């Protein structure tokens, strides 16, 4: 069904912000067009379906001080969740006027929620039932939960909203979790192989079968950004951050500009998952040893086992070492971040692969290939990564299963000491991935092996495409 819109900007602002010379539209009216009526200010749709399930008023943006704006106080950094207040971002029903955050729940999956509603599979005002969804482990509150310099990229109270914000739920507000805690068994092919080879014992508690079944506590986290804290972490002012987010996400969130009083933003990006091996209470116990792997998503290697990088081998090694540490009475943690292709995405990553393989795949030109396509080497920006460590109560890392200087520096800058850094064993490095790992070592990655000079890197070559069908270039 075709729907057309015409928009006439109207001033509906009751109290314009100071120094605003020409207030822009806060809302427009939506009415069916009959083809003969005079023009009416607002958005006119040919089909009533476009307005089904919604108010006839389309709120494009809001401003502080308007009569329609009455946000629930959200005091980031308060230790008492009741004083802190819930994160309210929904535009449904009475929550619309009480919103104290920008964005939408679900991270990047919020788009699929909108599609499902548009297709009629979900009512716009749906509210979930949280019966029996409480965490399988009650993580003890840490001092960092109320420290605005320690946690700025997740809601520290987002794991148990029923306990913390029941009165707001009872009042009909759309409060939703941004953290979920569960438990499961997992099986990884390499772990099963190492169990069969006797490298990892079956202890009946953590590793529960010789087929490779491993018990794990899992924590899924959606990003919730406290904008002043995020800006401070990156060394920019909050206004610059807000404007950049608004401009370079297609102007999708005008309240980043019009609502400086709202300090919390739920960005449409992937989150993270924590995998805890051994009793989860050990994670925050400084008297036991902790082995930690911080891993950024690489679908091609992690899932489909491409051999152009070390991602899956290092992930499997990290899981194995986490299991062994837990079996020895310590704690093992693997944290998986959705930052595909160094947060550049798979399309950019594959374009870089093409440029590498067609242009001579040598380690000395590894980063230049990425910079040529993306403009930068890396967009993961590990500055926000340590927040989850603070939330878990991790105060020191005995064995850091990572060679990344960026991850190391970000963690140490947040006051968490790293006692030992553990590189990937040489025997786990695929032959074609030496271009990547040797270039990274030369750029600052930790290693206990040889460090290559620029001249050495020219001799490190990846597998070419000789004999494969390819277009002529």
Automatic annotation (TrEMBL):
Query: Which terms does the record give in the GO molecular function aspect?
Result: GTP binding; GTP cyclohydrolase II activity
GO annotation terms (biological process): riboflavin biosynthetic process
Do you know which Pfam families this protein is assigned to? Answer: GTP_CH_N, GTP_cyclohydro2
Q: Where is the GTP cyclohydrolase II domain?
A: 289-423
Q: Where are the transmembrane segments?
A: none
The residues covered by the GTP cyclohydrolase N-terminal domain are 57-248
Keywords, A to Z?
A: GTP-binding, Hydrolase, Nucleotide-binding
Q: Which InterPro entries match?
A: GTP_CH_N, GTP_cyclohydro_II, RibA, RibA-like_sf
Gene3D superfamilies hit by this protein = GTP cyclohydrolase II
Q: Does the keyword Transport apply?
A: no
Q: Which PANTHER family match?
A: PTHR47259, URACIL-REGULATED PROTEIN 1
Q: Which family does it belong to?
A: Belongs to the GTP cyclohydrolase II family.
Task: Indicate what this protein is called per its UniProt record.
Answer: GTP cyclohydrolase II
Q: Which species?
A: Thyridium curvatum
């Amino acid at each position: 069904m075709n729907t057309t819109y015409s928009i006439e900007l109207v001033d509906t602002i009751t109290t314009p912000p100071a120094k605003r010379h020409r207030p822009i539209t806060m809302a427009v009216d939506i009415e069916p067009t009959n083809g003969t009526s005079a023009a009416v200010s607002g958005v006119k749709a040919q089909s009533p379906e476009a307005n089904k399930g919604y108010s006839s008023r389309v709120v494009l943006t809001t401003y502080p001080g308007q009569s329609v704006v009455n946000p629930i106080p959200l005091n980031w950094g308060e230790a008492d969740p009741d004083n802190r207040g819930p994160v309210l971002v929904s535009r449904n029903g009475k929550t619309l006027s009480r919103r104290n955050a920008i964005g939408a729940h679900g991270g990047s999956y919020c788009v699929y929620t909108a599609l499902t509603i548009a297709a009629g599979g979900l009512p716009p005002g749906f509210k979930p039932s949280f019966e029996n969804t409480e965490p399988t482990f009650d993580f003890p509150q840490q001092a960092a939960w109320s420290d605005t310099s320690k946690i700025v990229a997740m809601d520290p109270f987002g794991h148990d909203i029923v306990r913390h914000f029941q009165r707001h739920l009872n009042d009909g507000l759309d409060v939703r979790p941004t953290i979920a805690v569960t438990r499961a068994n997992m099986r990884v092919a390499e772990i099963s192989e190492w169990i069969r080879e006797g490298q990892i014992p079956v202890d009946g508690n953590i590793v529960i079968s010789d087929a490779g079944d491993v018990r794990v506590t899992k924590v899924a986290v959606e990003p919730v950004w406290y904008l002043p804290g995020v800006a401070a972490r990156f060394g920019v002012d909050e206004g610059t951050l807000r404007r950049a987010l608004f401009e370079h996400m297609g102007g999708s969130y005008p309240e980043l500009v019009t609502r400086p009083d709202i300090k919390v933003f739920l960005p449409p990006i992937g989150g993270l998952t924590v995998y805890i091996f051994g009793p989860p209470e050990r994670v925050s116990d400084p008297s036991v040893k902790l082995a930690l792997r911080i891993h950024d998503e690489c679908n091609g290697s992690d899932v489909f086992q491409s051999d152009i990088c070390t991602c899956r081998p290092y992930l499997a090694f990290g899981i194995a070492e986490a299991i062994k540490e837990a079996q020895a009475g310590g704690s093992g943690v693997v944290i998986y971040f959705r930052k595909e292709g160094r947060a550049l995405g798979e399309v950019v990553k594959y374009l870089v692969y093409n440029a590498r393989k067609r242009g001579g795949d040598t380690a000395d030109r590894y980063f230049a290939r990425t910079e040529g396509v993306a403009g930068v080497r890396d967009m993961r920006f590990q500055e926000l990564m340590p927040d989850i460590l603070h939330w878990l109560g991790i105060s020191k890392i005995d064995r850091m299963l990572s060679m990344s200087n960026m991850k190391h520096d970000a963690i140490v800058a947040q006051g968490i000491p790293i006692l030992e850094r553990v590189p990937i064993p040489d025997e786990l490095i695929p032959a074609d991935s030496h271009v990547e790992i040797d270039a990274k070592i030369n750029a600052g990655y930790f290693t206990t092996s040889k460090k290559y000079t620029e001249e050495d890197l020219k001799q490190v070559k990846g597998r070419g495409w000789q004999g494969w069908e390819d277009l002529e270039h």
